[in-house]
Write a structure and sequence with these properties.
Blueprint: H1 12-24, E1 34-36, E2 45-47, H2 54-58, H3 63-69, H4 74-82, H5 85-92, H6 96-107, H7 111-119, H8 125-132, H9 141-154, E3 159-168, E4 173-178, E5 184-189, E6 193-199, E7 205-212, E8 217-222, E9 228-233, E10 237-243, E11 249-256, E12 261-266, E13 272-277, E14 281-287, E15 293-300, E16 304-307, E17 313-317, E18 321-329, E19 335-347, E20 349-352, E21 358-362, E22 367-373, E23 379-386, E24 391-396, E25 402-407, E26 411-417, E27 423-430, E28 435-440, E29 446-451, E30 455-461, E31 467-474, E32 479-484, E33 490-495, E34 499-507
Antiparallel strand pairs: 1-2, 3-34, 4-5, 5-6, 6-7, 8-9, 9-10, 10-11, 12-13, 13-14, 14-15, 16-17, 17-18, 18-19, 20-21, 21-22, 22-23, 24-25, 25-26, 26-27, 28-29, 29-30, 30-31, 32-33, 33-34
Helix pairs in contact: 5-9, 7-8
Length: 511
């Protein structure tokens, strides 16, 4: 069923989770300092002076609430620490697919890699030993480990950079990215190819597969589960390669459209690919149980297409239009337009926050606007971000609490969410040259930018919440791509000089 105007269902999964959480708590903290915990056949009153009650209470509090709670008294401070409540609340901020990414990045490290991961930011060997000896497969272990590592990184005023690997090509490298487990690297090369590399036992990178197109490859991306690669080219082709049991990469499907491919990307659950052409047509291909991919939708009047965090919806927009369309997958696997939402400004590009409650749009000029999905399913403009020149890139952090914009005017702006849902400008970083892209790390506390000065700047959030430049990676020519590894410890840059650099971040005074 099609809807129009200000209706939406994109935040449905988030609202459902909220309702479920609320339904599980029948009473809260009372003036008498006791609670009633539901979920048991017999409800019992529990004193707040009983530490065993806090794991249940902490489950329903947000990170900022727990931070406030631990300041009340030494007893509550001890309860927060005893239950690792801050780490768990920090982890709960992320959508399930992002939690999967964090877990994978942790559990695929061997003991040596894991120890090095912490030693690069701490001289405290007792702390390193304690964290290294944790059972990393435990449910909340990734929360504790990432929370500690992120805090150590946030304490640094600057980062020391160590180039771990440099990969050379005979042509411009447009993009480069690591798989979530860090075992594979994919590049889009200016000689009409994409290369998939694997890291050998000695740490060197070797080519596993060359994906050849008949024209320039514009993008190459891994699926979140690391088992598929999709490439897009100006030769009207998109190709999906899959990882076999023998660790080889083989072509699974080649998609040909009527014009050059603008973009190709996976859904967060790795089950769908959306391919957008220059002629405003898009296709969705879905993974079948037998491992093949099938066409499940043809979409028209599309310039920008983004999957929701739960992968059940796709949001599309046409250049110059004020409408965004929300497509939903039906029970038979096909897709239909569920809602059409009219916004205030024309739309060139569009992206959703991780919890699907906010959307930010670019109008192709110097303005970005953020909208929030209200409880009555209307969309309300909540903040306008203005630059002096064209905005090239915008992105949300994985925890949904920050958004960054990058512009031709050389400025990166970071906005943050306050209590009550208000958004405010947190900082402005002046690059002096046009900024082409901005990308957050998986821990949401760092971002990397690329600009025309042949540099990629790493900006980090300090312990007091401020954002500052902490390091700068340089190439001999323009940097076209800069991304973080899934564990946030490395930055992968690629550029016109035909090189990919894998740079490890370290504490500048750790040694």
């Amino acid at each position: 069923m099609n809807g129009i105007d200000n209706s939406c269902d994109i935040a449905g999964s988030h609202s459902l989770a909220t309702r479920q959480a609320q339904s599980e708590i029948t009473t809260g903290i009372s003036a008498g300092r006791s609670i009633t915990v539901s979920g048991e056949e017999k409800k019992e009153k529990t004193s707040l002076l009983d530490l065993s009650a806090f794991p249940l209470i902490f489950r329903y509090l947000k990170l900022r609430d727990i931070r406030s709670l631990e300041q009340v008294c030494t007893y509550l401070h001890a309860a927060v620490k005893e239950n690792n409540a801050l780490a768990k609340a920090w982890y709960r901020q992320f959508f399930s697919t992002h939690q999967y990414q964090l877990r994978t990045a942790i559990t695929t490290k061997n003991d040596h890699q894991f120890r090095s991961w912490f030693e690069s930011f701490s001289n405290d060997m007792a702390l390193v030993d304690s964290l290294t000896n944790r059972k990393r497969e435990a449910v909340f272990c990734p929360a504790l480990l990432y929370f500690n590592k992120t805090n150590l990184m946030s304490e640094c005023k600057t980062f020391k950079l160590e180039t771990k690997d440099t990969i050379h090509a005979n042509a411009i490298i447009r993009t480069a990215a690591l798989s979530v487990d860090g075992r594979y690297l994919v590049t889009a090369v200016g000689d009409n190819s994409a290369m998939v590399y694997a890291q050998g036992a000695n740490g060197s990178w070797v080519i596993k597969t060359a994906i050849i197109h008949n024209d320039l490859v514009t993008s190459a991306n891994f699926s979140l589960d690391g088992r598929h690669v999709v490439t897009a080219s100006r030769g009207r082709e998109a190709k999906i390669y899959s990882l076999g049991r023998d660790e080889s990469w083989e072509t699974n499907v080649t998609v040909t459209l009527d014009s050059a491919i603008r973009s190709a990307s996976f859904s967060p659950d790795s089950q769908h690919v959306v391919i957008v052409s220059m002629e405003r047509m898009a296709q969705i291909h879905s993974l079948k149980n037998n491992g093949s991919w099938e066409l499940t939708a043809n979409l028209y009047d599309v310039r920008s297409a983004t999957f929701s965090a739960d992968s059940r919806r796709l949001v599309t927009a046409e250049r110059g239009s004020t409408e965004m369309k929300i497509h939903s997958q039906k029970s038979d696997g096909s897709w239909e337009v569920k809602n059409i939402i009219r916004l205030e400004d024309s739309i060139n590009l569009i992206s959703f926050s991780p919890e699907d409650r906010y959307v930010i749009t670019l109008n192709g000029h110097s303005k970005a606007r953020m909208y929030r999905c209200e409880t009555n399913e209307s969309w309300k403009s909540v903040v306008e971000i203005q630059h002096k020149q064209v905005i090239h890139s915008t992105t949300f952090s994985a925890d949904g609490r920050h958004v960054a914009t990058a512009s031709l005017d050389g400025i990166v702006k970071i906005y943050g969410q306050r209590a009550g849902g208000l958004w405010e400008e947190k900082t402005i970083i002046d690059h002096k040259h046009s900024v082409e892209s901005v990308t957050f790390s998986s821990d949401s506390r760092h971002l990397v930018t690329t600009c025309h000065s042949h540099t990629a700047k790493i900006i980090g959030q300090e312990a007091d919440g401020s954002w500052v430049e902490k390091a700068c990676i340089t190439h001999a020519c323009w940097i076209l791509s800069a991304t973080f590894s899934a564990d946030s410890s490395r930055v992968i840059t690629a550029g016109c000089d035909g090189t990919v650099q894998i740079t490890e971040l370290q504490r500048s005074d750790v040694y």
